[in-house]
Amino acid sequence: MKRFSQTIFALSALLKIRNSYTVLISAFLVGLVSLSPAVAATIPFTATMDCAAANAGAGTCGAGGTGTGSAVVTLDDVSNLLSWNVVWSGLSVAATAAHFHGPATPAQSAGVQVGIGVASNPAISSTVISAAQETALLNGLWYINIHSSAFPGGEIRGQVNVVPIPPAVWLFGSALGLLGWMRRKKAS
Which residue in 40, 47, 39 sits closest to 162, CA to CA? Predict the structure, then answer.
């Protein structure tokens, strides 16, 4: 508490604030902001799976692999809660396993990071991942693999990618920044 009051006193001296009510209100607002909890962002991802991407891009289509799939995945960046909804269809035989694999580029294979399960289709679940797993996922180094008895190494595969921010959001943000700059220039 002593450090907080010293910070407010130094801030008021720096800003040459003489009114005690202004200092108290400023102290309250600074305290309120510093006590507010972290706000989690939910980061969206998607994956499109097919037989051409299986086996690190070598594919299973020519050997009788069929099927397609898609996934909607989210990550809470504070709790690292990974949630997914994965659906597939048209496999040559029934799915035997499904996993998130990584870290790997589309031309590489990697070990299992998180089991998805095939008890139901769509497979909907969630789990908490580690900081290292989060980093690999955010860097596009995870993929989803749906395995079958015909293709134990995976019949369909798709890289998990962050959903990009739409251009309209960037345009809106740029317009706000430009307006702020113009107001400052006009005021000076």
Answer: 47
> Are the C-beta atoms of 176 and 79 separated by less than 8 Å?
no
Choose among 181, 77, 173, 167: nearest CA to 131. Answer: 77
Strand partners, 75: 43, 82
CATH placement of domain 42-162: 2.60.40
Q: pLDDT band at residue 17, thresholds of 50, 70 and 90?
A: very low
Contact 65, 150 (CB under 8 A): yes
**Which band of pLDDT confidence, cut at 50, 70 and 90, is reported for residue 30?**
very low
In angstroms, the CA 126 to CA 134 distance is 14
- Angle at CA 38, nearest 5°, toward 103 and 125? 45
b/e for 6-28, b at 16 or more Cβ within 10 A? eebeeebeeeeeeeeeebeebbe
Mean pLDDT of 28-51: 71
110 within 8 A of 123, measured Cβ to Cβ: no
pLDDT surpassing 90 at residue 97: yes
pLDDT the model gives residue 185: 64
Q: How far apart are CA 2 and CA 73, in angstroms?
A: 46
